[in-house]
Structure to design on (834 residues):
């Protein structure tokens, strides 16, 4: 009964979405207040219907209702409860439902927090969002229905893919989807503005906090995915340039460009048509990512079962949504103009450069991801593009971005003077160079790559320090504290996010240059020394998990005869799918991770053991977390929380934050 | 003229959609084998069920036959198995199993438990012959013609549709 109710809820949601996607739009064009007023209650209703369907599916998982095809293929009665819940998004159909749920959550939030927007604007925004959700509902109901019943009820389910049975899996997809789908808000604002022809600084102000919030979720989502790959896939790497990783990274790059571009549009009214294009592109890339993952056109570790009908539907939908919005853009944007003028050297120019670099980086990732497909489609053979391409292309693009992170916040709007900037930042530059050389020397040898990485990292830190000093100094400790309290939250958020970039760059440089990786053959009783740590393989034992059998190794790690850690890596075989899985043991600390994973058993009771020592690897994800926290602070700045336009006087003090 | 700039994103997107549409019709897992239209690698292996009897490539000359690479540890082979059992009932061409990186007892037990679709299975314990055939992932299936030339290769499990739409026409052509 419950699955049928869920199904009906989805059908009703489709009906509501179609109404919400049309009537308010027509109402806004004809000035009919009653039609426009439909948008908000419709959005609320749609939210409740989709949430109901989602809970219905979740309850089928919790109750082990294997009469549903989807539950039977992605769950099992021995699966722990947390993974039964996460199993809802463990396959194609449920992922789509999660995607849809996130979309209506954002739509609901927009409906609730938009009382101050003019009626035609909010009507258009909600209508555009409803059209997107109608497309996804139609997609689910026609090709990927999660509520499909089985004629014969199996005794037990096929179990969740063991790769996904991990705490990371519980939070990674919802976060990532919140980010992906969150860009639909900026997209809808942009399309609504193009339809209405009102693209001004207020438009940018409305869009900014939503975009930053979506960007924060996406940042956390990508970081969690990377962390998950680090300890679940057992390769010890943190980024593989896999097509699906790239699919999430491209919207992130476009989104990063967008939040910086929105700053200029809000403060200075400049780059309007460019900002609108970025808003369209960021969400289009989210849709493209969905297409790449769901259609199976690219092979990837994330391969889901594929069905050509699904690919065709998403492609048609993609063509309609993106093609439609870009057509609207080509038609309306020329009237918008670029907005205010600015000098050749100014904060605007620096941010424009940042934008161009991010967009070029995004296009190079897009090219690298689709290149195998392009060649194949042209009949030129099959190839795969791997990390060498991405590393070669990406680093030269990111180095100038990092350089700009230091300068941008200190440059004046409209017109800046080069000698002035050079004078203010000269000490920061000296400090960065000296600190980079010292850090590389301490870490184990000065190499070009490592020193460059450290230089980027310390440059940002030194520039932030200089910036803060200029803003706060004078009047002793009391004066500094008083000024610090007055710093707008958006400014603190920006500095924190930039600091996150520095922390991230530091972690990456450390890992890339100084990690030690050893693949060894070890039998119980053997010892080996890696990067100053002595690893003693004590023995093996077998374990019974709830739905897997495992072999667990016991490895004692000492340094200079002092115990450091006892590590227990496992090799699991999940009973239902007979799939072997590696559970690496990781001993974390601020300055290094020790990573041990079991490879394959070899002759004589020995195993191939992977032992890695990775300096500062956790800084990579900490950096991402800092960026997200910074974003969250900026998105909740009081000028956005203020509901009434009267409160705008406070933005004077926040004016410097970009 | 200046207005035309704003059409550029739309045009780029149109090109992208064109390629994505083409991409839908392609299978990224379908890898071309360098062996196609080349003689099958020579091999001499023992039978899985009888370590005393050896089988050579040239024993199969004059017949169109299928070589199916399988192993008892391979999950996808289980998935493929019913399709092979159904195919073996048609008795159209000899189906030879290449038992890849397996042990005799485990391989034989697997066949006993799930049914044996093969006219015979040959035993490639260390995977040498598999390497010569360029085995990429188990299961894999090769179509070899009367002159011992590889004519078709499929990576991954065979399905009833695939057997019907791809393999059977090829076999019919070769046997004609």
């Amino acid at each position: 009964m419950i699955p049928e109710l869920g199904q009906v809820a989805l059908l009703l949601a489709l009906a509501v979405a179609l109404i919400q996607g049309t009537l308010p739009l027509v109402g806004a064009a004809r000035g009919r207040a009653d039609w426009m007023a439909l948008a908000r209650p419709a959005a609320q209703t749609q939210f409740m219907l989709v949430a109901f369907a989602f809970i219905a599916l979740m309850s089928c998982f919790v109750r082990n209702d294997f009469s549903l095809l989807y539950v039977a293929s992605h769950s099992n009665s021995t699966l722990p409860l947390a993974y039964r819940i996460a199993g809802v998004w463990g396959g194609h159909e449920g992922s789509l439902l999660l995607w849809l749920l996130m979309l209506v959550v954002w739509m609901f939030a927009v409906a609730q927090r938009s009382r101050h927007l003019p009626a035609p604007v909010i009507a258009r925004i909600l209508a555009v969002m409803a059209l997107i959700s109608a497309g996804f509902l139609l997609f689910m109901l026609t090709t990927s229905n999660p509520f499909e019943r089985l004629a014969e009820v199996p005794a037990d389910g096929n179990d969740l893919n063991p790769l996904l049975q991990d705490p990371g899996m519980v939070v990674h997809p919802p976060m990532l989807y919140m980010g992906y789908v969150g860009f639909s808000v900026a997209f809808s604002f942009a399309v609504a503005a193009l339809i209405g022809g009102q693209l001004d600084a207020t438009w940018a102000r409305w869009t900014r906090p939503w975009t930053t919030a979506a960007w924060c979720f996406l940042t956390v989502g990508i970081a969690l995915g990377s962390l998950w790959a680090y300890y679940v896939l057992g390769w010890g790497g943190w980024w593989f340039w896999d097509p699906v990783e790239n699919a999430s990274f491209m919207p992130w790059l476009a989104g990063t460009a967008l939040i910086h571009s929105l700053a200029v549009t809000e403060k200075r009214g400049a780059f309007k048509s460019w900002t609108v294009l970025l808003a369209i592109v960021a969400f289009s890339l989210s849709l493209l990512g969905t297409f790449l993952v769901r259609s199976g056109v690219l092979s990837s570790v994330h391969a889901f079962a594929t069905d050509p009908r699904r690919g065709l539907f998403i492609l048609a939908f993609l063509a309609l949504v993106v093609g439609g919005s870009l057509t609207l853009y080509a038609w309306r944007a020329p009237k918008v103009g670029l907005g205010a003028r600015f000098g050749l050297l100014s904060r605007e120019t620096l941010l424009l450069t940042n934008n161009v670099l991010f967009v070029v980086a995004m296009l190079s990732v897009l090219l690298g991801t689709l290149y195998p497909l392009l060649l194949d489609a042209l009949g030129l053979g099959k190839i795969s593009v791997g990390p060498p391409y991405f590393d070669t292309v990406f680093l030269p693009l990111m180095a100038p971005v990092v350089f700009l992170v230091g300068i941008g916040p200190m440059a004046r709007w409209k017109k800046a003077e080069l000698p002035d900037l050079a004078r203010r930042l000269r000490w920061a530059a000296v400090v960065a160079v000296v600190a980079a050389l010292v850090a590389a020397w301490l870490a184990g040898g000065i190499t070009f790559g490592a020193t460059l990485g450290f230089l980027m990292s310390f440059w940002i830190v030194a520039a932030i320090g200089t910036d803060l000093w200029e803003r706060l100094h004078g009047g002793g400790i009391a004066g500094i504290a008083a000024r610090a309290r007055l710093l707008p939250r958006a400014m603190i958020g920006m500095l924190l996010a930039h600091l996150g970039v520095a922390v991230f760059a530091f972690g990456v440089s450390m890992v890339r240059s100084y990690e030690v990786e050893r693949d060894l053959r070890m039998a119980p009783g053997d010892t080996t020394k890696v990067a100053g740590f002595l690893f003693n393989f004590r023995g093996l034992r077998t374990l019974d998990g709830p739905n897997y059998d495992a072999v667990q190794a016991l490895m004692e790690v000492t340094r200079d005869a002092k115990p450091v850690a006892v590590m227990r890596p496992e090799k699991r075989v999940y009973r239902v799918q007979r799939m072997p899985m590696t559970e690496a043991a990781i001993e974390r600390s601020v300055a290094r991770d020790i990573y041990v994973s079991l490879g394959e058993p070899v002759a004589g009771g020995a195993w191939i053991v992977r032992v890695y020592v990775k300096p500062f690897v956790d800084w990579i994800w900490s950096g991402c977390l800092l960026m997200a926290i910074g974003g969250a602070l900026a998105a909740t700045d009081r000028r956005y929380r203020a509901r009434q336009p009267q409160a705008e006087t406070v933005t004077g003090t926040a004016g410097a934050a970009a | 003229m200046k207005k035309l700039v704003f059409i550029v994103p739309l045009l780029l997107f149109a090109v992208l959609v064109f390629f994505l549409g083409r991409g839908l019709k392609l299978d990224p897992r379908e890898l071309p084998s360098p062996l196609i239209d080349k003689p099958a690698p020579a091999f001499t292996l023992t039978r899985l069920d009888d370590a005393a009897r050896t089988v050579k490539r040239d024993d199969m000359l004059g017949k169109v036959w299928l070589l199916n690479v399988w192993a008892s540890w391979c999950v996808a082979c289980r998935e493929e198995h019913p399709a092979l059992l159904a195919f073996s009932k048609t008795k159209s061409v000899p189906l030879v199993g290449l038992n890849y990186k397996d042990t005799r007892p485990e391989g034989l037990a697997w066949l006993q438990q799930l049914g044996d679709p093969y006219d015979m299975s040959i035993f490639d314990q260390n995977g040498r012959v598999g390497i010569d055939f360029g085995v990429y992932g188990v299961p894999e299936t090769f179509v070899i013609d009367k002159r011992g030339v590889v004519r078709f290769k499929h990576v991954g499990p065979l399905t009833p549709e695939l057997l019907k739409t791809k393999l059977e026409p090829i076999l019919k052509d070769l046997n004609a």
